[in-house]
Each structure stands twice: as structure tokens, then as C-alpha cells.
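Model it.
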Amino acid sequence: MSTLNPKLRATETPPTTVEEAVRDYDELHDRAQAVLPDAVDGDGVTIPEDVADDLSDGEVVRFTGYYRLDIAQ
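Modeled.
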């Protein structure tokens, strides 16, 4: 039996539309820091469950800009 890993997408969002708390890239766990650049540069990236557990769907992370995270199962 195989399970599909979640997919992380990071969509750039203007800082003026951000109403919730923002996490800085440096505050992310090392595993999340390793996958975020790929999610920003592409159309999403498949991530392990433990990385998905470190992130919250809909949260905003400040990296090279502000990015809203979408984690799809």
C-alpha cells in the first residue's frame, strides 16, 4: 500500500494583503527551509509528511518575498 506525500505550493503575495502573522524563512525547520526554494521556483514540490507537519496550510512566509503556502494532500 502506498500513500501519496503532500504537495507544497508557494504563491507570492503582496505584503499589503497579509493580515496574519508572518514567519521568517529562518524560523522554519531545516527540512522546510530545504524545500521552500523549489516550491517558490516551480509549480509546487512533493514533500515528506514530517515537513508538512512543520508548516501550516495558508501561512505566510517571508523568503525573497512574501509567500502564502498551500499544502495539498
